[in-house]
Amino acid sequence: MHTMKIQTLVLTCLIFSSFLANNDCSAQSTAQTIADVSPKVVKIFGAGGGKNLYAYGTGFLVSPQGHIVTVWSHILDSDTVAIVLNDGRRYEGKVVGFEPPLDLAVLKIEADGLPYFDLNLATSAGPGARVLGFSNAFKVATGDEPVSVIHGVIAAKTTLAARRGAFESPYTGSVYVVDAVTNNAGAAGGALTTWDGRLLGMIGKELRNTQTNTWLNYVMPISELSETVEQIITGRFQSKKQDEEEGGSLTKKKPRRYDANDFGIITIPDVVARTPAYIDRILPGSPAETAGLQPNDLILFVGNDLVQSCQTLKEELGRLESGDQLKIVVRREDKLITVSMPVVKKVVE
Amino acid sequence: MKSPIALLSLLVGFIAMSEGGLFAAEADVLQAQQNRTDVVKRAAPTVVAIFSPDGNGGGSGVLISPDGYALSNFHVTSACGNFMKCGLNDGVLYDAVIVGFDPTGDVALIKLLGRNDFPFAPLGNSDALSAGDWTYAMGNPFLLATDFQPTVTFGMVSGVHRYQYPAGTFLEYTDCIQVDTSINPGNSGGPLFNAAGELIGINGRIAVEKRGRVNVGAGYAISINQIKHFMDQLRGGHIVDHATLGATVRTGSDRTVLVDSILESSDAYRRGLREDDEIISFAGRPIGSVNQFKNILGIYPKGWSLPLVYRREGRKQEIFVELPALHRKSELTQAEGPKAPKPPGPRKPDPKKTDDPKLVEAELPKEEIPEEYKKLFVKKTGYANYYFNQQEQQRVLQGLEPFVSWQGPQAKWVLNGKTADGDNFQIKLLPQALTAQFTKRAPGLQNLDGADFIDEPPGSGGLLAALYQFKLLLSEGKSAFTQFSYSGSQPLDGRGTMVDVLETKKSSVECRWYFSVTDGALVGFDSSLGEDVDSCEVRFLQYGDFQGRRFPNRISVRYGEISYGIFEIQTIDVTAANETQN
Predict the structure, then answer these.
(1) Is A9 in contact with B7 (Cβ distance < 8 A)?
(2) Residue B432, CB half-sphere, CA atoms under 13 Å: how many?
(3) Active-site residue, from B52, B72, B75, B535
(4) pTM for the whole thing?
């Protein structure tokens, strides 16, 4: 164990020093990296204004058709936002999806053939890796000016302890902590890349520890975001956040024609972001009992749609129409069991 | 989460040890390190720690010449007064005097005194920078350098050609360099070096928001190329002013930049620029946004002529526009002296508290100005320090030495010759009147009985008045004029060689005299009969010998867009005032 640690250390050392070696002799390639990455980063202008409610931000392109990843923030609280590309082209951006627990939003502009980060080629890095941060911090760049670039080193990869009273952040996943001041006003949504321009993550919001009055420069690894981004882009995304919280003024009101109760299914309380859809109990004499469902069954599919949580179960059931045949796949012990029951017309009270 | 940090520090330790032979570092790593330490070693002696005489203000600066000229920020020197104390890394505290400043661009030029062999930084080319280039910032952040050894920070260019909106009073950062190099209060006025150790900017501004007055990864340096444009004016002791176009611009559709409104009194208007014209390029740089236009405009002094290309109805047109001043004179003279309004920017923090009061006493420089240096400051309205303008006047006036034989009061000059288009002329410059006679052109008469100077001969822009000014300059020199000053250098007519400019005024006639920077020769002058009208532009194309006396024998005369003529002078008759004319 000890030896292994030393080996890793030496190896990291070598990698680190080879990075350093590139320092001066690769001036051309650094310029090349910046030239490659800058066109993929966009300036966002939207709602806000006032001292700590700035109306500008950053995002980066993840498809040639103009999908842009950025942070979910007040800047997007308007019908449309202005997206200004590296070359000064200006577009109207629309929010196509967002996920508050990930502090993530995906925008879309009507364009084609744009330079973009291929999320499949995104990478990860560990402490000691040299990184570049691209963002429109302080709105320094306007028009056809490229966003600002700063350099730093990943100091740690850790979990953001978003405790109430200390670091307050909706995002609680893993983060890169960077030794450079990446997280400034307007920088959130910017891109962190490797020295050769591969995407590592999205620069987070400004985050202050209220107890120590220190500021944390954190970046959300792209691996935490890419799945959701893909789902939003392909239109398969369901937010893990409850709609009832009215956080999503931009989501369409979802139908709520049926719920689990209508079939005699009571799931466990939906308390966390992705509560698995376990059956808590079955109402006696209900269709569910007839179909043979039991407590502790885990609902996996409604029809052909994957049920990831109580929330998605609720949405899937809400879409049912009377006359449908409800097909549910549950896992019981190690077995998958498929049951079926009719969707009967509800009596309107 | 201790382990990654521990790992990192271990790593650093390993790398440090590797130099000692535990691990063989790659040769280019060591070379890169050596290069850095070499640059720092070379640059450190040029970095100045500036203190006000009472020790209560301060910042940084950088020497740019062996005779002690040093650059800093206006917001640093304005807090110090006309004299200040400057520490170098040799541990010596030198006296320094203010030379010139630029309240708009936040630049000040000072002169360290007492040596003629100061170490100095070579000036680089800030336009060659691009994002990702390495830079060193040096100076005295937080006034840590009590032994005047400058602090070095190392970082990257984050953006070039940045525009920072005016904050507070005059201050506007145009076309500046943005770096992630750590710039902190006290770094103000200090140098930004490129990887080769050349001076590329003066650090002056940092982004501050809610985190207090410390570096947050965005520092701004005034580009050295901008400062170069103003350098000679600063050396001439001026409170320099920036320029406007006399027109405002707006963004049109499809990222065009259009003339929004234009002053009819402006040179741009007289050159033909109108509302809604699309500006294609300015000063040789393409214009794609309003910010870009402001960036370019912001780096030039008032009075310069610059090429501007515009498009109207599909047709491109190039003009040379003389830029009017951005501010009224009275606005800028408010900035005079040490009580100037303080623009925002990094400023000195409170002096460090220390337990040893003697130490504080020892650090504080003496307040008095040595007697020998007091003459180096001359107060005059409109100038930072008129003493230096006098020095520059003397230097430029050496260009008149070949004309020394023309000196003498009240002589009569009669110039005979032919214009390039075959018109014979005789121009008489007499004590009572000036006359011009031609075979083809209309004649000219300008009385010297106190009458206003007018456009004579008509269409020349006042050639007679202009030649009269020239006669005054050669025969009587500086004393002939009510106002006389050196006003820096600029490219002649916006495209020619660099010329030093002397400005004179005699009654209502203002002249700008152009002396080649390379050899000091007088190459021409502009004579203006009033404000907001075109000048009579006289250019000396060739000099000849007239009975042992040097005089231009081929002279081009232009008025606005029109060439009035090229004058070939064949003979000059000069008689003293008391001789009767035949």
Answers:
(1) yes
(2) 0
(3) B75
(4) 0.78
